[in-house]
Each structure stands twice: as structure tokens, then as C-alpha cells.
Design goal:
The protein is of the alpha/beta class. The chain contains 13 helices and twelve strands. The structure holds nicotinamide-adenine-dinucleotide and 2'deoxy-thymidine-5'-diphospho-alpha-D-glucose. The site of nicotinamide-adenine-dinucleotide has 31 residues, from helix 1, strand 2, helix 4, strand 5 and strand 7.
């Protein structure tokens, strides 16, 4: 590779693969993509980059210091973008250990390797170097209905093992800046949606179940609120933070688009009715099921710092993004089948098998 490189971790997952694709579209940076290919990571997310000489995929773990050291030595990256994580809250409730291993221990191993590498750079390379840690709004916990949105100064109050593991990683990243001077950046983003999102997350799950005429499982009363952002807007924001953000700073990224889960599912049903009139009305498939334990009621992001310092704001409206997402899933049945093979069916049984619709709050409504 002749261009400067970025080392992207978790680049075979949902957001990571969209990010790598957008970086390579501009072709100013080569990408070394380190991903463990867990149930959430798929080479099918990167098929269009298979012949790109500027994209180098490596299957491996961010917690493998020998491998990470070797990649840093070989490719001499100008930046690291850390997407690698266990990312699904429900999985963190059923099995938290993997979340601690990758999100906390793995991120820390990565930081140790990167610090060693950064110290070996000459001063002009070291000054320009950045470690961007991609984190979540879930570290801030849950908002009440009248609370102002989360800012970069909101208190950390993580409620799920996933959120706690991401919070721990954020603290380690911050500590490596304060203690060792490593030029880090942290972003805390709201819920993403769009192409290549794993079929077990809310929007793809509802699309897949809706097409197939299966039940649409809404946790509890479905009045929980999330702030939705189209994945390409997130990727654009990350590029700006990487290139123009101030080292040591945190940036909140969000869509200014609060919706209840029930709103989302009903809107998807409306779009499904248009695309598949024979299955209408898809709302008949909505089933309130037992709630997620510790379920955060509301997230909302104040993204003023992104707007004022970096001039970023989301470009894709929720209506346009949701319609494009539904279209993408409809046009990629082969991708859905490939990433769903085997393990996805087992997950559906594990997560939904014990949730009795009749016992769920909101079941009558
Ligand atoms: P994802 O689960 O789709 O992808 C995670 C990727 O990391 C997968 O490709 C997986 O194989 C890889 N991975 C897991 N453990 C690894 C390890 N030990 N070493 C190397 N690779 C490993 O997740 P996503 O939704 O794309 O999220 C990416 C990042 O963004 C995560 O850190 C997540 O916390 C954060 N985030 C996600 C959202 C969202 O709405 N999806 C919002 C804000 C922040
Ligand atoms: O807020 C950012 C976070 O958004 C990211 O950090 C996480 O990595 C990402 O997975 C996402 O977390 P959520 O828990 O919000 O996403 P999920 O798609 O699992 O659920 C969205 C909402 O929908 C949540 O309130 C739970 C609800 N839900 C989810 C599923 C899968 C249901 O009601 N039924 C379901 O079957």
C-alpha cells in the first residue's frame, strides 16, 4: 500500500463495514481491517472491496497483542478507528463475559499496543496520529421524559452489562490520554440504522419478520425512546472527528430524531403494507412480549458540539433513511440468508423463546 493507512477494528460489522466502504470510496487512505468475525462480523459485508488493493482484511482479535503489534509495525497506520465490540444489549444480558473480554480487556490491550507504537513514531508523525474510539450514548443511562438530551458532560450511569463495558472502555481511553498523552478521540453516538445491520437488531428484525409474516416482538409497552441516525451520517461524522477533532475530546453524535419503538414498528408496517399489499395490515403481527431487564426508557443526544466545532449535521431524514433501509433489505435476500445461517435461528429461540406475549405489559393494547 502506497497511501497512508488507517487501522480499522471491527470493520466487518455493521457500522465498521459502512465506514471502511466510505473511506475507500475516496481512496485517500488505505485500510487495514482487523476483525474477529464473530457472529456479528461477515465478509459478506465487504464483498465489493474484495479486489480493492487499498483494503487489507485480517481475521483476528483486538485482544491479541502479538498480532496487533505486528500489524502496527507492518502497516505504520496514521490513525486507529476502534469499532470492535460486542454490541447487542440482549446478548450482554444473557452472557456478559464476552463483553468484558472484548470491550474492556480487548480495548485495553489495543491501547497498550498503540501506546508502544505511538511512542516509536517521530515527532511529526506522533503529533498527527489519532486513536478514535467509537462509543455509545448508552453509557449515560436513561433519561426521563422532560430531561434535556445527553451532552458530553452528562454523568456516566450505564445500566446494562453492554453499556457498562463500553463505559469502562471510554474511561480507559480517557486515562491513556491523561496519563500517557496518547492523542485519543471518543465519540458517543445514538442508535444507527441502515444497510448491513445485523438481522437481530430492532429495525432489520422487524423488516425480516414482517416480510416473512412472523410476529413483530415489541418489548414491554414499546414506549421506549431511541434517537435514530442513518449509518452514513455517523460515518461522515467519524471522518470529521478523525480529521479535525481535538485530541483528548469527546463528541456526541445523534440524529435529533427521537421515536418510540412502537412508532418505528408501526412506520415499518406502513412501508411493508405498500411493498407487500398481500400481507397487509402488517400491524396485525405486532406482539408485546416480556420486557428487556433494566431497559433504558429514553435516549436523546445533544450534538451541538459536533455542529458548532466541526460543522456536522445529519443529512438523511428518518423517512428517507427508513425507506432506503427497507429497500436495501428487500434487494439483498442473499445477504440476509448468509448472515442469518444457523446461528440466527438459535438466537431467536434463545432470546424470544421464554418471552410470553400474553404476560407482557401492553399486551392488551
Ligand atoms: P456490530 O456488532 O455489527 O460489529 C462489531 C464488529 O466487531 C463485528 O464485525 C465483530 O466481528 C467485531 N469484533 C467483535 N469482537 C472483536 C474482537 N475481539 N476483535 C476484533 N473484532 C471484533 O456492531 P456495530 O453496530 O457495527 O457497532 C460498532 C461499534 O459502534 C461498537 O463499538 C458499538 O458499541 C458502537 N456503536 C454502535 C451503535 C449502533 O447503533 N449500532 C451506536 C453507537 C455506537
Ligand atoms: O444507543 C446506541 C446503541 O443502540 C448501541 O450502542 C448498540 O450497539 C445498538 O445495538 C443499539 O442498542 P439498542 O439496545 O437500542 O438496540 P436494539 O436494536 O437491540 O433495540 C432497539 C430498541 O428496540 C430497544 O429499546 C429494545 C427494543 N427492541 C429490540 C428488539 C431486538 C424490541 O422492542 N424488540 C426487539 O425484538
Amino acid at each position: 500500500m502506497q497511501q497512508p493507512n488507517w487501522l480499522v477494528t471491527g470493520g466487518a460489522g455493521f457500522i465498521g463495514s459502512n465506514f471502511v466502504r466510505s473511506v475507500r470510496r475516496e481512496a485517500r487512505f488505505g485500510v487495514v481491517n482487523l476483525d474477529k468475525l464473530t457472529y456479528a462480523g461477515h465478509l459478506e459485508n465487504l464483498t465489493d472491496l474484495a479486489d480493492d488493493p487499498g483494503h487489507h482484511f485480517v481475521c483476528g482479535d483486538i485482544g491479541d497483542a502479538t498480532l496487533v503489534d505486528a500489524l502496527l509495525d507492518e502497516y505504520r497506520p496514521a490513525a486507529i478507528v476502534n469499532f470492535a465490540a460486542e454490541s447487542h444489549v440482549d446478548r450482554s444480558i444473557l452472557g456478559p463475559q464476552e463483553f468484558i473480554q472484548t470491550n474492556v480487556v480487548g480495548t485495553h490491550t489495543l491501547l497498550q499496543c498503540v501506546l508502544r507504537y505511538w511512542k516509536s513514531l517521530d515527532s511529526s508523525q506522533a503529533d498527527g496520529f489519532r486513536f478514535l474510539h467509537v462509543s455509545t450514548d448508552e453509557v449515560y443511562g436513561s433519561l426521563g421524559p422532560q430531561d434535556p438530551p445527553f451532552t458530553e458532560n452528562s454523568q456516566y450511569r450505564p445500566n446494562s452489562p453492554y453499556a457498562a463495558s463500553k463505559a469502562a472502555a471510554d474511561h480507559l481511553v480517557r486515562a491513556y490520554h491523561e496519563t500517557f498523552g496518547l492523542p485519543v478521540l471518543t465519540t458517543n453516538c445514538s442508535n444507527n440504522y441502515g444497510p448491513y445491520q445485523h438481522p437481530e437488531k430492532l429495525i432489520p428484525l422487524m423488516i425480516g419478520n414482517g416480510w416473512a409474516g412472523r410476529l413483530l416482538p415489541v418489548y414491554g409497552d414499546g414506549r421506549q425512546i431511541r434517537d435514530w441516525l442513518y449509518v452514513q451520517d455517523h460515518c461522515d461524522a467519524l471522518r470529521l472527528v478523525l480529521e479535525r477533532g481535538r485530541a483528548g475530546e469527546t463528541y456526541n453524535i445523534g440524529g435529533d430524531c427521537e421515536r418510540t419503538n412502537l412508532d418505528i414498528v408501526q412506520e415499518l408496517c406502513r412501508l411493508l403494507d405498500q411493498a407487500d399489499p398481500a400481507g397487509a395490515p402488517h400491524t396485525r403481527l405486532i406482539a408485546h412480549v416480556a420486557d428487556r431487564p433494566g431497559h433504558d426508557r429514553r435516549y436523546a443526544i445533544d450534538a451541538c458540539k459536533m455542529q458548532q466545532e466541526l460543522g456536522w449535521k445529519p443529512r438523511v431524514s428518518f423517512d428517507a433513511g427508513l425507506a432506503a433501509t427497507l429497500r436495501w433489505y428487500a434487494e439483498h435476500p442473499g445477504w440476509v440468508a448468509a448472515v442469518s445461517a444457523g446461528a440466527h435461528e438459535r438466537w431467536l429461540e434463545t432470546n424470544y423463546g421464554g418471552r410470553d406475549p400474553a404476560a407482557a405489559p401492553g399486551a392488551a393494547g
